[in-house]
Amino acid sequence: MARLSTRITTINGGGDDGWGVFLKARRMIAQGTPVTELTIGEHDIRTDPSILAAMDSAARAGHTGYAMVPGTDRLRDTVAKRVTARTGVPTTRDNVIITPGGQAALFATHHATNDAGDTALMIDPYYATYPGTIRAVGARPGIIPTRSRDAFAPQRAEIDRAVETSRAAGSTPRSLLVNSPNNPTGAIYGADTMQAIARAACDHDLWLISDEVYDTQVWEGDHISPRQLPGMADRVLVIGSMSKSHAMTGSRVGWIVGPEQGIAHLIDLATNTTYGVPGYIQAAADFALNAGQQLEDDIGAPFRRRRAIAQKVLGAQQLVGSIPSQGAMYLMLDIRRTGLSGEAFANRLLDTHHIAVMPGESFGASAAGHIRVAMTVEDTAFERALGTLCEFAASVA
Fold this sequence. Notes:
The protein is α/β, with parallel strands linked by helices.
């Protein structure tokens, strides 16, 4: 075989991509072993039938050919109207490009902001694909560590230190990726934290890439988009998605919101990569975004309930610690008192009780000794699995 590029062969940094326990669980399921999966952020309800009907209707009406690469005017206008209403920042279709899901948006925004060899900063713990996405565009991941005792909120001093570290290594920091509500921790960055992040971006002349795909899943506090902070609209690229808000994970439709000139260049990139999103899927997304708040509330309701269930179960014991989950569909649990690493705990839990969770180490060094639990199974099964997890922790401590 001819030589493959260094860029593609080093996407995972020469190590595990963080999905080992998840893949092991899937192999067990394929072999006929029942497993309670608390791993990935996949709703246990499917896309609402009304959205599927809109998708079917659009496809049967002929919207199966090439769609406009930036997205249909109708969907871009709908996204712009939604962003304006939610943030107060005037937004038009020229500030919006439709993408094949949030992951494609992550790739595109880092391509737009980083040249080969530049540093793209990200906060640890991070969503498992962040480092690989950054390496895939030829940039270097720059890690900003956080602490469990701070609920994994980033501190300004650590941002400054990461900037200086990258410069000392001969690499220019160009972007900072933030995610609130956060995957994997469930944290929501408060006003002080978000303002400190914005000031750091300005002081170090960084693009701020804001992954806001969980912005409808807020259980405590308020979601703040950094684009709405004073002076930040021309420095922020916001990533949104239909996956979490409307249980449309498989439809692969999201967006980027940013300054007009940046969006224009991102359209050039899309023309030469994804070539847009199918029109019938965009029609379904437009229908869903206009279906009303109740639909979004119904999709988020199971996670709000299960968060309350988790608080009850975890409150009845004192060994497994819980990072306050303010949003999203995850719990970050501290299992360091068991003496096991997150990876060892997750593997032994899967082997002995057929419950699959994600090791904290899958999301970076800051989450070592933790596990992430996705609240994505039916309430009774979730309560039972979480209780078994706590009993297992006690048995190995």
